[in-house]
Amino acid sequence: MSWRIVVPGSTANLGPGFDSIGLGLSLYLQLDVTPQDTWEIVHLSEHLPQNIVIEEHLIYCIAKQVADQYNKPLPSCKIEMSSELPFARGLGSSAAAIVAGIEVANLLCDLNLTTQDRLNISSQIEGHPDNATASVLGGLTISSMTKDGIVDTLHVNNVDASFVVFIPNVELKTSEARGVLPEQFDRPYAVEASANANMLAASLMARDFKRVGHYMEQDRFHEPYRAKLIPNYADIRTAAKEAGAYGTALSGAGPTMISIIPTSIEESFVEAMKQRFPSYDIVLTKADEQGVQVTSIAAV
Question: Where would I find the GHMP kinase C-terminal domain in this sequence (predicted)?
């Protein structure tokens, strides 16, 4: 028996929805998993590293951690892995890998994990539930996590909007991006920041995408502090708005930025942005509607 695991990447925050709002994107991590006598991991995508140490590989480490958590030995397998998610760009590559690693353990160890198990475990490992819940469920997720690691998620599918991501050829580790954030906010500032987050969530639920775009650009929690780390941050926001975007924000911690745009201008918008920012990978995408998917396949 062999399995194919497909996990969507994600964008998090969408501006002020800090560490809480996530959106699965139709950009994917794919693993073909075949049991065998020894561990083997093969990277099929060019941007994935070719020097692989099994014991240090994130997929293996997560699968081993989950198996240990359930007091199960982790059987060996071959994993052939391809990805549309560049590393450390703010498109949920680590969360997708964590969700995939959990699924590897679930399959090899016959754990019969529930969806709630997947949400809890992935969010606990990530440290926050935004990207993880979006990769597990797809669609829009608005989540909280207790100190005990229990996740509560409001999940909305059919997010019928178009998104464009601006992917630069530079990495930004989340730890570095978190390092510039203040430890506390004054009360009036925090009230404004919270109100903007509430309005973003409500606008997303109402599918009022023009208003979504407005509140994507009203973050007070993290973007004012991270902007200096992001190449062309102000230029991209301005150019996207001039080309018809509803709004633009950091994707997660960045450095990728994401715009929500009217579906009717997809082609003209992407072409304009490619001409304006030729060193960027400009990608049109939609919300993923499935979340993590596992199917049986012929032996590979």
Answer: 201-278
pLDDT tens column, 78-112: 999 999 998 878 899 999 999 999 999 999 999 99
Mutual angle of helices 115-126 and 130-137, in 10-degree steps: 150
197 annotated ligand binder: no
Q: Is 89 annotated as a binding residue?
A: yes
Q: What is the pLDDT of residues 149-180, one digit of tens each?
A: 999 999 999 888 999 999 998 888 777 888 99
Which domains does the chain possess?
2-156+288-297 (3.30.230.10), 162-285 (3.30.70.890)
Is 226 labeled as ligand-binding? Answer: no
96 is in an annotated binding site: yes
> Does the annotation place 93 within a ligand binding site?
yes
